[in-house]
Amino acid sequence: MSEAIGKVANSKPGKLAKSNTRKVAKKAAGKSNGATGDKPKRVVLAYSGGLDTSVILKWLQDEYQCEVVTFTADIGQGEEVEPARKKALAMGIKKEHIFIEDLREEFVRDFVFPMFRANTVYEGEYLLGTSIARPLIAKQLISIARKTGADAISHGATGKGNDQVRFELGAYALMPNVKIMAPWREWDLLSREKLLAYADKHNIPVDFKKRKGGGAPYSMDANLLHISYEGGILEDPNYEPEESMWRITASPEKAPNKPEYIELTYAKGDIVAINGKRLSPAKVLTELNRIGGKHGIGRLDMVENRYVGMKSRGCYETPGGTIMLRAHRAIESIAMDREVLALKDDLMPRYGRMIYNGYWFSPERVLLQSLIDQSQATVNGTVKLKLYKGTVMCVGRESKTDSLFDQTISTFDDDGGAYNQADAGGFIKLNALRLRIAANKAAGGKKK
Fold first, then answer.
1. Per-residue pLDDT at 190
2. E strands, 146-218, in order
3. 244-398 — its CATH code?
């Protein structure tokens, strides 16, 4: 890139034609991709079938004269994914190069559940719904690239957001020499109007609502764990979103007036049954979303710190995840050693930043995950929860095999000598020793 900039800077004013400018920019763009700087021959595109990725598909074909492979993932976003196949075919993609995959079970089993074993939140509130989906998509992009012999991948993330980092760190960790095409960092189609004009010029079908400026006045991202809302009218952090924005949670004010009780069964830190009915990971989360959404659970409005450096306001709906977090802490409270739990709590913020910043496939996250997973060996039992108007309250927890709660010791009644209360005096004095020494020092060495 610096070489291209130097050529432009050293040219005399007016001598550099527009066509040459485009050639220089194009050459620079080519040098910015991959380890070798060569143009990609075949690119796997994360493709939704929407305006942005449809424009990207055509743009890649035109700008790089490369073959495009499309990948559309169903991770529980609640929208049909099959229309993407029809649209890709209409844009000249070979049938064998269109991949549509149902990843819901893998998403929850291998990404969401491991994250919740750590009770993970980012900056005290965010349950990482978008963040945890990105490494799975990166993994599949690379898997398809290997399967089809592609030498590059592409995504529709902008140059301002976290997702570009997450996709690309994941991809490089799995395929170190892969080329990555990030059109939003190269092209000048930086507005909806320009995207629509490009689509019209190249006969790319556009949804009527998109063309007329309809639809939501903010961007949305959905998967089985959550829905996020940001941008547009939400860029004012003092603006309260309208009630109509929320899609999967009832308003707490309009939630049922009667509480609902549920029982979750845990095995090694993961939920395996709801109200005694065994369910797969994806079905567990789907059912908790339904129940939690009905009771107005899981809404969040926060300003967070993006990895790229700026602050961003986001609104989130995570009903099932909110229930999972409360329940998991409850079962750990009865079945996990105090210092093991404290160690996990100390490490959790760092683990959360790894996921938020895109380091799911990093050696440090993998190492930390093994510690977290080992800690879950005793996290077995049941948790009873009371759901009511946006709140989740634990009202019971039991582990028949691994409980560390000993009622004969903790009772306030006569414990029959199980605990010698006189021992507490020496315990307190020993723990107070450093405090007494410091107090004496501050008082000039006088003993009190």
1. 87
2. 152-154, 179-181
3. 3.90.1260.10
